[in-house]
Design a protein that fits this description.
Number of helices: 7
Number of strands: 0
CATH class of the largest domain: Mainly Alpha
CATH architecture of the largest domain: Orthogonal Bundle
Strand content: under 5%
CATH topology of the largest domain: Hypothetical Protein Yqey, Chain: A, domain1
Structural class: mainly alpha
Shape: globular
Number of domains: 2
């Protein structure tokens, strides 16, 4: 199956957002495009799917952290803007695994690696992430689940 590079998809969506006069969406799309182009220039080669996902996950994490900070600072309108941008970024990411999928991947990873203590957490994390390839995995949630199962 052919997959259009994310930058091309974003560019087409920018054009559509301009025609529809969707200012918030346009701003978020331009921010995504800039981040992807910067990464492409920094690496001096076209981005592969993994690199695109790394950039998108970084942008998503930044938006969520900013929204949390704005909420703590009683700036609900700015937090709402960050959350709206996060939703737009998420729309370009693969779906997140369900709790059952996470649970199964961690259980299989522990069985595969034969891990018995938290000292082997890194091996289990690596194996679990490999099983969840193609999904958007929250590293923190995965880490907590692995800790709980090994603890």
């Amino acid at each position: 199956m052919f997959r259009m590079p994310l930058l091309e998809t974003i560019q087409k969506d920018i054009t559509a957002a301009m025609k529809a006069r969707e200012e918030e969406r346009l701003g978020a799309l331009r921010m995504i495009k800039t981040a992807l182009q910067k990464q492409q220039i920094d690496s001096m080669k076209p981005l592969d799917e993994n690199a695109e996902m790394q950039v998108m996950n970084m942008l998503l994490k930044q938006r969520r952290e900013a929204a949390d900070l704005f909420r703590k600072g009683d700036r609900a309108e700015l937090a709402a803007k960050e959350e709206a941008e996060a939703r737009i970024i998420e729309s370009y990411l693969p779906s997140a695994p369900t709790a059952e999928e996470l649970d199964r991947a961690v259980a299989e990873a522990i069985a595969e690696t034969g891990a018995a203590s938290q000292k082997q957490m890194g091996q289990v994390m690596k194996a679990a992430q490999a099983k969840l390839a193609g999904k958007r995995v929250d590293g923190k949630a995965l880490s907590e689940l692995v800790k709980a199962k090994l603890g």
